[in-house]
Amino acid sequence: MEGLEEKLKGLSIARRSVPEEPTYLLDVALQPSGLLAVSCSNFTVHLHAKDTLKLVGEYRGHSKPLCGVVFSHTSPDFLYSGSADGTVRGWDVRRPGSEAAQVFKSDPSHSFCSFDLNCSDTLLCAGTEQVNKEDSFLVFWDARKPGGGLLGVYSESHSDDVTQVSFHPRDKDRMASGSTDGLVNVFDLSRGAEEEALLATCNSDSSAGSVCWSGADYTQLLCLSHDEGLHLWDLGQLDTEKPLTIFSTSDARDVPLLADGGGTDYLVGGRWLEEAQKLLVVGGKSSGDIHLMECDHGGLRLLRSLEGGHASTVRCFLWDAAGEALVTGGEDAQLLLWKPGGEDLAAGKRESMKSQSALSLKSRPHKKHAYQREKKAA
Length: 378
Fold this sequence. Notes:
The chain has 378 residues and is mainly beta. It has one domain: Methylamine Dehydrogenase, Chain H, CATH 2.130.10. Helices cover 6% and strands 45% of the residues. It contains four helices and 28 strands. The strands form seven sheets. It has a four-stranded antiparallel β-sheet. A four-stranded antiparallel β-sheet has the order 2-3-4-5, with no helix packed on it.
């Protein structure tokens, strides 16, 4: 079987999206039967055909920035999106352009900056922005109730914006959450009350951004911080005296990857690739070039650099194992499909389609918290 490195080395651009309007592409999710869902900075959700990237649908309904898109695991024609407007909405992808089939809400003061759906499609959880300068919440709903059955909240585990909620890929009751308070918490929701459910707290020593389950049995957690730190922890060591940290760097930009000693300007995210049994971490250059890296106990190792695709910062990616393809989206409004032997008909890198309104956004919106604090201190 061909190794991951060989597969990545064969990647080239096979398709580019042609956006009708300039907008940042923030997150992307894959439906196994052939659709891509993309959350955009203009508060819309776009549906694209996986193999052609043709736009086949759009959903409007959110009134504030989106915090992600997730397909249902057992009913893949159902898609969820979360937003700072305080709602998580469920959409039927067989009816592009239709109204939301489900709307989940909580307290009117709640503004969501993360959410996820557990592997059995029974539970939704959203993380809120900080409320009243000291509180933040993990809000839970029964995803099976059309009216959005609110189950309750956890209120003690984080003190700042909950930037990531990530359910375990196989255990419906296991969940991790990350926050700008620097903490990454792991819960066993079957234990009920928050205090009993909290299994572990890992400190990222910074503002935690994305959290990703990894490892052969998904017993590891990858955390990427907002100042480009990277931490890989082994939760299998919780009941031992051994350290949890597998690898850690306070600034991945300092890790030399290239022959000239250069590295990455920022981290996009990480994904555990089940078939390859590898943890893929994607970083980028401000020019739009992408670095595909492997992360393990030995640190970060460059597998492949992809050049000539994006014209600006890359914000999201996914690996399609079945199609052996990589999908990337970014601030240049482009959605790119990279495949072995791909041949992009539009030669050369497309110009960025950033609009004036898009330029007014922070290039890295998740850094807004540090920016605001610096302003307050000034």
